[in-house]
Design a protein that fits this description.
There is one protein chain. This protein is α/β, with parallel strands linked by helices. It has a single domain, classed as NAD(P)-binding Rossmann-like Domain (Rossmann fold, 3-Layer(aba) Sandwich), CATH 3.40.50. The protein is built from 8 helices and 10 strands. The protein has an 8-stranded mixed β-sheet, with helices on both faces. The protein has a two-stranded antiparallel sheet with strand order 7-8. β7 and β8 form a beta hairpin. The longest helix is centred in the last third of the chain and has 17 residues. The mean pLDDT is 96.
Length: 210
């Protein structure tokens, strides 16, 4: 799969590395193209760099590895992402990470779908810490689970396949509205990891789900 990853942080770098190792074609994109080139060069694995628009144009899937508050501007800079599978890994956390800034009747993923109505938005990887990516998709020595939500069944299944190609266990959770549950799970993971001192070598899963 040809994948554009928007962002240059730890999540972007970790996903880029895992996906590239799994044989996917990866382009890192950023407003700061010098930073994107630097990150791509450091990661190796034939990872390329480019602008949001150029990376998106060639991609089958686009990963939003940027803060939720930046998503609208990034999508606009990329030209709207019509027809693309957009993998939303964001969590709408408050500035102090003490809770979510929205929920109950909507989610970050659903709001992003409104911003990019012609895209196929899929929620995934939002419950995974960057250190789990660096540990080859393992948390506590066990294969980590990626929960995948989306209204487009084909796009959802393609993201499950992508996650599994990178070494994760993929679990479909239904339509995009189930992101309203996944984003609080991510907030709990952050509270456990940082607030309660369990560290970042953790990830949520569901026992008994094949």
């Amino acid at each position: 799969m040809n994948i554009a990853i928007f962002g240059t942080g730890n999540m972007a770098s970790g996903l880029a590395t895992l996906f590239a190792k799994a044989g996917h074609t990866i382009t890192i994109a950023s407003r700061d193209q010098d930073k994107a080139r630097t990150v791509a060069a450091e990661l190796g694995n034939n990872i390329a760099s480019g602008s949001f628009a150029d990376a998106a144009a060639a991609a089958e899937a686009v990963v939003l590895a940027v803060p939720y508050d930046a998503a609208a501007d990034v999508i606009a800079a990329a030209g709207g992402l019509a027809g693309k599978t957009v993998i939303d890994i964001t969590n709408p956390m408050t500035a102090d990470f003490s809770g979510l800034s929205l929920g109950f009747t909507t989610s970050a993923a659903e709001e992003i779908q409104k911003i990019a109505p012609a895209a196929k938005v899929v929620k995934a990887f939002n419950t995974i810490f960057a250190s789990v990516l660096q540990n080859d998709a393992k948390a506590g020595g066990q294969t980590a689970t990626v929960f995948v939500a989306g209204d487009d069944a084909e796009a959802r299944k393609s993201v499950v396949a992508l996650a599994e190609s990178a070494g994760f266990k993929g679990v479909e959770t239904g339509g995009l509205a189930s992101s309203r549950y996944l984003e609080p799970v991510a907030a709990l993971n952050i509270a456990l990891g940082y607030g309660l001192g369990y560290g970042t070598d953790i990830a949520p899963t569901w026992q008994g789900v094949a």
